[in-house]
Amino acid sequence: MDSKGFNFSIVALLACLVLSFSSSIHAYRPPYWPTIRVGYYRYSCPNAEYIIQNIVSKAVSRNPGIAAGLIRLHFHDCFVRGCDASVLLDGPNSEKEGIPNKNSLRGFEVIDAAKAALEAACPGTVSCADILAFAARDSSYKVGRIYYDVQAGRRDGRVSIDSETLDNLPSPFVDVKELINSFARKGMSDDEMVTLSGAHSIGIAHCAVFANRLYPQNNQQDLPIDPEYADFLKSICPPEALTNGTGAANPANFDVFTPNKLDNKYYLGLKSQKGLLVSDQTLMSHPTTAKLVNYNARYGSIWARKFAAAMVHMGTLDVLTGRNGEIRRNCHFVN
User: Fold this and answer.
1) Are 233 and 213 a contacting pair, CB within 8 Å?
2) 330 has which bridge partners?
3) CB neighbours of 43 closer than 8 A, spacing ≥ 6?
4) If you write DSSP's letter for every residue of 236-292 in order, what string do you get?
5) Those residues with Cβ within 8 angstroms of residue 64's Cβ, 6 or more apart along the chain or in another chain
6) In the predicted structure, residue 278 carries a pLDDT above the cut 80
7) DSSP letters along 48-109, please?
8) 25 by DSSP, 3-state: which?
9) 107 CB neighbour count, 10 Å cutoff
């Protein structure tokens, strides 16, 4: 073979290799992981949102306190392992058994009713994680006329560990700096933290949780409290609650003005030194968060819009989509 023929053969071989390599590149397609989106169930379960809304509305009409419970369920779900309904799983070492959750979470029966209705209408289609997100939105609307579109397409996790609740959920006893850090670790801002604290416009806390607001222990933050409000709380929560548990289960409303309405009156309470928990009143102890409290107290409609946006953001935390996770048939157990 002469040199020209040899060179031509080499060029042809290289061209084939390049084409072969190029074809293999084009043949490869990375896996497609769907993201959550508004209208996710438009075709697979068209009545999903209506079914959930109807069940939540009836439950909140019977017991307005359930609205606070459902919003809190969604929050406690999203801050531990992301919004994957791990908070709903049963088990001796599940998140339900974690110290922040044990015997304090409410609204499971509403989620169960919604899941049963959805399984009857669209079997194996709507995740428990999405039900939590929709139920929180519907609760916000029912008691506060705060509406926002919910992105859906989350899948349910298979793991739930009690100890992870302490590591991820902000304590009712911490100061403002720890609250800021707790939300920052989830990629959420100071403003979003103060805004979502407004969910304490509804709901209750028990004496065991707010006793240290009245009787600070072991160098805990001693925050100012309105004297009449303190006397009122002490009538509910005696000092013995910290020693022998007397009255520890007695409840008090978070909001002294409109306890069954999700609105910005919570912030007026903080300005009046009537925050129920240390983690409430501490928002007034830092210049940045105090400024946000004052702003939210003054502009209720703007706070409501910020609350909706912060709930949407929270609902995107570490979600499972695509082939990750599963669609549970029963929200209490993995398939």
Assistant:
1) yes
2) 333
3) none
4) HS-GGGGTT-TTTT-EEES-SS-TTS-STHHHHHHHTT--SSHHHHGGGGSHHHHHH
5) 143, 202, 260
6) yes
7) HHHHHHHHHHHHHHH-THHHHHHHHHHHHHHTTTSSSSGGG--STTSGGGSTTTTTT---HH
8) helix
9) 25
Note the pLDDT tens digit of each residue in 61-88: 999 999 999 999 999 999 999 999 999 9
For 335, other C-beta atoms within 10 Å of its C-beta total 10
The structure tokens listed for 146 are 């705060």
Six-digit token string for 270: 């903080």
Q: Helices 190-197 and 300-314 meet at what angle, rounded to 10?
A: 110
134 φ, ψ (degrees, to nearest 5): -65, -40
Any idea what the Cα angle at residue 35 is, between residues 71 and 305, rounded to 5°? 40
> Identity (one letter) of the amino acid at 107?
G
Sign of the alpha-carbon torsion through 160, 164, 166, 172: negative
Looking at residue 220, what is its pLDDT? 66
In angstroms, rounded to a whole number, what is the distance separating the alpha carbons of residues 41 and 47? 8
Beta bridge partners of 251: 206
- Measured N-to-C along each axis, helices 190-197 and 287-298 cross at an angle, to the nearest 10 degrees, of 50
Amino acid at 135: A
CA distance 128 to 286: 38
Dihedral of alpha carbons 52, 67, 334, 316, sign: positive
Q: Is the pTM of this model over 0.85?
A: yes
- Under 8 Å between Cβ of 63 and 56: no
Considering only CA atoms, which of 247, 245, 268 is closest in space to residue 256? 268
Residue-wise pLDDT tens digits, 258-274: 999 999 999 999 999 99
Nearest CA to 144 among 306, 315, 293?
A: 306
Helix (H, G, I), strand (E, B) or coil at 33: coil
Residues in the chain: 335
Active site residues: 76
The tokens for 234 are: 């002490």
What one-character DSSP code corresponds to residue 326? B
Q: HSE-up of 218 (CA within 13 Å, CB side)? A: 3
Per the structure block, which two tokens stand in for 18? 């390049």
